[in-house]
Specification:
Radius of gyration: 21 Å
Number of helices: 5
Low-confidence stretches: none
Largest sheet: none
Mean pLDDT: 84
Distance between the termini: 34 Å
Oligomer: single chain
Order of helices and strands: HHHHH
Amino acid sequence: MEPRSAGLQRLVREVAKFGAVGGAGVLVNLGVFNLIRHVSGLPVVRAGVIATVVAIVFNYVGFRYWTYRDRDKHGRTKELTLFLLFSAIGLVIENGLLYLATYGFGWDSPLQSNIFKFVGIGVATLFRFWSYRTWVFRALPSREAESILAAGAHPAPRASEPQQRVR
């Protein structure tokens, strides 16, 4: 298997796992949002923020213990801090769109609120995927890279790479 192909397969698996946890998180988010909206008299954006916070907690557990379980587990305090920071930015993106639709355009029916809540989740998800994989759940170095760093040597050329001769 070529390294490029293996990397693409890892990315596809990561996106699939992220999508599975995120999809369940969307259901949690929309479920809590609609429950709060119909049971309480809270304004739409407050209901959206509460639902997002519940989904953030749900997603952290799913990402840490399933999607990114093989990632670096050192520095959990830093990981959680970064997760909450980027989640808060995602919360602002997600509920900012809901706020704009509700108070900027007056689109406040249950259907319109759900559509814009869903669109906000989608836009925020793109940001979250990038930030979580880049900053929060950092990849561990490959075993090959670790052994090279430990030995303090340069990697041996692969059979397919031309070797330079020293004269």
